[in-house]
Design brief:
The protein has two helices and six strands. The protein is α+β, with helices and mostly antiparallel strands and 100 residues long.
Length: 100
């Protein structure tokens, strides 16, 4: 079984987060896309590094395939462990995927 497109997308961001020791932050949708950042979710948005955006449909699928709290997900043969939580930046909510 092949991994869903949305999970392959998430895996790309999780790899960046693992390499930097920071979290993936998926911002609330704006104009049919969700901005993706990597950084420390406890700091201000200005300290996060923008890494592109994903379609709202992919973001929704990621949320359906993961859960709040601890996750262990196999994507294309690689196991990713992370904690999914929520936070708020300025005027927008965000989902945080913190590697464990």
């Amino acid at each position: 079984m092949t991994a869903a497109k949305s999970l392959l997308c998430l895996a790309e961001y999780l790899e960046i987060s693992l390499n930097t020791g920071e979290s993936v932050i998926m911002m609330q949708a704006c104009d049919d896309a969700c901005a993706m950042y990597v950084g420390n979710a406890a700091k201000a948005q200005s300290f996060l590094i923008f890494h592109g955006s994903i379609a709202v449909a992919d973001a929704e699928d990621i949320l359906q395939r993961t859960q709040s709290g601890r996750n262990e997900v196999e994507i294309a043969g690689q196991v990713y462990r992370f904690v999914r939580s929520v936070t708020h930046f300025e005027d927008r909510g965000a989902v945080v995927f913190a590697p464990t």
